[in-house]
Specification:
alpha+beta; 3 helices; 3 strands; three-stranded antiparallel β-sheet
């Protein structure tokens, strides 16, 4: 099991089109601390790059969400991704 698999499962169970979680909420879901780099917007990037090393992006992407850091709040907004 990958570190962010629990986040993917959690997000798949959500029905809201958009909602926020605190970093502490995300840490409870994954059962581990987020890295310090999670405070930077780049960590929450939604770019679908098959060569990316950002395994966390795959968690919310596979669940059908995009993630956006809320600056200065240690919170992230998850928004259901638009279907092409």
């Amino acid at each position: 099991m990958a570190k962010y698999d629990p986040l993917c499962r959690y997000l798949r169970r959500q029905r809201a089109a958009e909602f926020e979680l605190s970093f502490a909420d995300v840490e409870r879901v994954i059962g581990a601390m987020l890295p310090g780099s999670a405070a930077r917007p780049q960590w929450w990037a939604n770019v679908a790059d098959p060569d990316t090393t950002h395994v966390q992006r795959k968690a919310w992407g596979d669940a059908g969400y995009e993630a956006f850091l809320i600056a200065g709040k240690d919170r992230v907004r998850f928004k259901r991704a638009q279907q092409p």
